[in-house]
Amino acid sequence: MPVAALVEAGGIFGIRAGSIRVALARLLADARIERDGRGRYRLGAASTPIETLVRSWRHLEERTCTWTGAWLGVQVRSGTPRADRSHSLRALRLLGYAQLSSGFYVRPANLRERPVESRALLGGLGLEASAVSCELHDLDARSQRAALELWDLEALLRGYREMRARLEESAEGLAKRTTEAAMAESFLLGGQVIGQLVQDPLLPEQILPRQERDALVQTMRHYDALGRAAWSAFLDRFGVRHRSTPQDTRVVASLNRARA
After folding, report:
1. Mind listing the pLDDT tens digit of every residue in the chain (260 residues)?
2. Is the distance from CB of 146 to CB of 81 less than 8 angstroms?
3. What is the arrangement of strands in the sheet containing 71-75, beginning at the earlier edge strand?
């Protein structure tokens, strides 16, 4: 997106142009975003792990497999600097880990990634290099009971139902909103739901049936189409690709030159 589009979009949410430009400068310094040859901004290499995770919300079922009863575990060391620990805890939370004992986090081993791939994903999301990861096959009975109680199942189910109801209510009213109001509402509510889905622990069927989560994903897919429609005229005006997966414009230009 060009900076003019970002500034105008920020205005819809009451964000000043100066604040947008300061944020862009910081994101550039952290390699979270980068500029292409035309001065447009896109996500940078440092954002790839979280971007990949966020994009998975549409097909969460493809991230899991049948649970055999095994667990994935991560031990984080004590004495780690606060910033590193904060990044580690965020990475663990994003992949559904919960603390079983001091510094030791577990989740069911029902992700399609193999343990070594899961560790690499955690590292990309910010897990400290000193953390120790493992796969557990024979938890003692007490630890097994404790592990199964780490997630608030009622809260998860309630969250699925409440957000689904909010999406349905908003979807009915979007057409009655002004263009900018529909853009803001769909962006904020849709982003909240996507955030909830991305941070879902993806528990196996033996712990929490997936019907309610699947229903929320399906409702969000429909709402996402409405939100994209609300933003389409704005994005078209700035020449921003939005009807298909964004591409690196340098790659597109290279392919066009090769065809020529």
Report:
1. 999 999 999 999 999 999 999 999 999 999 999 998 787 999 999 999 999 999 999 999 999 999 999 999 999 988 888 888 999 999 999 999 999 999 999 999 999 988 888 999 999 999 999 999 999 999 999 999 999 999 999 999 999 999 999 999 999 999 999 999 999 999 999 999 999 999 999 999 999 999 999 999 999 999 999 999 999 999 999 999 876 544 444 433 443 443 34
2. no
3. 98-101, 104-108, 71-75, 132-136
| Cα torsion angle, 19, 23, 26, 28, sign | negative
- Rounded Cα distance between 94 and 122, Å, is 9
According to DSSP, residue 76 is labeled P
Q: What is the CB-side half-sphere exposure of residue 53 using CA atoms within 13 A?
A: 25
The whole-angstrom separation of Cα 95 and Cα 113 is 11
Q: Which helix (H) or strand (E) holds 175?
A: none
The enclosing H or E element of 205 equals none
**CATH T-level topology, domain 63-148:** Alpha-Beta Plaits (3.30.70)
Q: What's the predicted TM-score (pTM) here? A: 0.89
Residue keyed to tokens 């909240």: 192
Residue with tokens 């991305």: 198
Q: How far apart are CA 4 and CA 232, in angstroms?
A: 16
Largest CA distance in the chain: 67
Domain boundaries, given as residue ranges, for the chain? 63-148, 153-237
Rounded Cα distance between 229 and 223, Å, is 10
